Amino acid sequence: MVPQLSMTRISFPEPVLPSVFSGVTNCPGETQEARSPASSSPPGTQEPRNPDFTPMEPCRSLALLTSSLGLVSLLVALSTNFWFAAQGPKSSSHSGLWPSKDQVSVVAGYIHVTQSFCILAVLWGLISTAFLVMSCIPSLSAPGRGPIVSTFMAFAGALSLIVAMTVYTIERWNQPGNPQVQSFFSWSFYLGWVSTLLFLCTGGLSLGAHCTTHRPGYEAM
């Protein structure tokens, strides 16, 4: 008979970790910030914004800048009398949109047209600038409505200025000249055209700010 071999299971005692590992120790190079508790905000979220103020994106900031510059330029052009200048052999003169008291009765019709459309442009520019400022304060304007209203107002101001400047330019250009007198447009006139370009830029930038604000996923950024 073949003798049966008995198998005996040998058990080893489990290793006991030293008590030094039971606590939390600082590793070399570890900073206090690494061991600070995690933020209570979920990952990927930003801190809550101030509800009384909306951060200004680049388009809105540039639109507010061009609108302010255009409005100031137009006010300076309207208040100065250097639209047209004349240089003679012995004297020189200059004129604007507001003739002196002794010339009120002989003001040409195109001057009145230029005055009216320039004043309209000032009003549109004021409204455009005001809505851009209010768009930064949600409590003063409906969400997303400020830039689009400013767009229409800025383009309306630019259109009014185009009419005013075109009428003035054509009428002055077609006036008969004196061979002994050199006449030319002065700096107030060119400042009016600069205001027109600035209002056009304001309309484009305000439209860009409106489209950026309503871009899908913008609020989640």
Please give a structural write-up.
The chain is mainly α and 221 residues long. It has a domain at 65-85 and 108-176 and 187-213. Helix content is 47%, strand content 5%. A three-stranded antiparallel sheet has the order 2-1-3. A hairpin with a 4-residue loop joins strand 1 and strand 2 (92-95). Helix 2 packs antiparallel against helix 3 (145-173) and helix 3 packs antiparallel against helix 4 (187-213).
Task: Summarize the model shown.
This protein is mainly α.
Layout of helices and strands:
Elements: H1 58-79, E1 84-87, E2 92-95, H2 109-134, H3 145-173, E3 182-185, H4 187-213
Antiparallel strand pairs: 1-2, 1-3
What is the SS-derived class? mainly alpha
Task: Tell me the series of helices and strands, N- to C-terminal.
Answer: HEEHHEH
- Our estimate of the beta-strand percent is 5-15%
Model regions low in confidence, pLDDT < 50 over at least 5 residues: 20-25, 27-39, 50-55, 216-221
The largest sheet has its strands arranged as 2-1-3
Q: Number of DSSP strands?
A: 3
Q: Provide the helix percentage.
A: 40-55%
What's the overall geometry? elongated
Q: Describe the biggest sheet?
A: 3 strands, antiparallel
Features of the shown structure:
221 residues; mainly alpha; 4 helices; 47% helix
